[in-house]
Write a structure and sequence with these properties.
single chain, 556 residues, alpha/beta, 16 helices, 30% helix, exonuclease, RMMBL, hydrolase activity, cytoplasm, Ribonuclease J
Amino acid sequence: MAKPEELVFAPLGGVGEIGMNLSIYGLGSRQQRAWMAVDLGVSFGDEEHLPGIDLIMPDISFLEKERKNLMGLVLTHAHEDHFGAIIDLWPKLKCPIYATQFSAALFEAKCAAERNAPKIPVTVVPSGGRVDVGPFNVEFIPVAHSIPEAHALAIHTSAGTVLHTGDWKIDPTPTLGAPTDEKRLRELGEEGVLALIGDSTNAVRDGRSPSEAEVARTIIDLVKAAKGRVAVTTFASNVARIKAVAAAAKAADREVVVVGRAMERVVQVARECGYLDGVQNFRSPEVYGHLPQDKVLALCTGSQGEPRAALARIANDDHPEITLNRGDSVIFSSRTIPGNEKAVGSIINNLVLQGVEIITDRDHLVHVSGHPRRDELRDMIGWVKPQLLIPVHGEALHLNEHAKLARAAGVPRVLVVRNGDLIKLGPGDPGIIGEVPSGRLYKDGTILEDSRSRAVVERRRMAFSGCAFVAIAMTEQGELADDPEVDLVGIPDKNRAGEPFDDLVFDAVVSTIEGLPKARRRDPDALGESVRRAVRAVINEHWGKKPPCLVHVLTV
């Protein structure tokens, strides 16, 4: 009798962190499996710890090795942390991609805006539809979220059905798109669900996430009450919020001016897909200065403090078309993603210094999360009745709280896992059965680097302690042909006693060379290493830090 096929799951990103989502499912025997990937996202670099790194992506070396067995990549929705790595990483995989209309259209627009983006075909699947991806039959189940056409995936296989929730919430009154499809989720629960792989982002928060409809009402009230110009910043992908801002502007007899390329792109795609039907046309930034102050509303990118986005430039007073003055208002219709607090705080402070009134979710209900709180997680478990629950999409605390909630809700098996764990879902007892390679790739300018990259490590060290450069010209007899040249970057000019560091390092270089035997002086590598050690030691003695030191030895 043939052995039943084994269904496995491995997160390669998005577990123990929020962002960089990539999950893989495998079906078959341990020797030969067909694979399917779900989402391929990014997280964002942190200038303090990763200077010069814009994006962080999951290591896909395992999928590259299994490329001939990779049946496809399925997208739950079009947020950057779920689809932002495709342009860079798809050429290494070249597998089919499946997405619904809005996600496919937004991806196409993103490719068009990117210089030298590869031609990447996407197969469009209708919302609520099904598609065969190798041996996986994937059903797109609509869920409410902060972007159009978010979907949970019911992955039907010979070993059972898995519900991969993606990002979701329960919003009975969404202002755009369908609510979470409770009826279909309950039906799945009755049919039998082997495993629920679920969003844990808000697992520490009690109750339920408020509705988008409540935010829309608040924004209308705030815009109507405003006296001067109004600017609203939100995530560009939140089309429901864009629609709410448009409604508020209309109610207050204001024109909407769209500021920022990402916002313009989403508005264009949303109009093409019918999500802004009946919404007034928006104006371009050059019109802003010609409209009366009480007749304009600027819809801006930059809610996360991005330095090149519209709001940062407005706050720094260097935007070519948009200015704000005393008595104007800025509504932050967003939450600050952890890690961005400093950048957002800087923008707020600059605006306050200009006399601008700031409105955030601390003062009014101008933002709601797109993720489920604890009562919603309980509802999902009650509808789906999974045999196994694996928390994903969260840091360690979120995963742990989701797991505790699931156990208390009576889920028979709950597994907390890490990126790279290979988990058997069925048939039989589930559990971690191995490991697959996982890690991070850094987008450094136009280059993708391994997280162990020397360039990134050295840049971090240079950011902390500067760098010393020494050039030495030696004769073939092992004598100095000229004075050494010393260049110190990012190192203080003088020590505590007021002695110039240039002089201290120069003296250390000369005395080190003169103290070496002739044979060692004639060996450029040995000479360079001796000088490097001496320079680092003297700087450490007078400063308490050991900068990297680069020594160039020239024989003349």
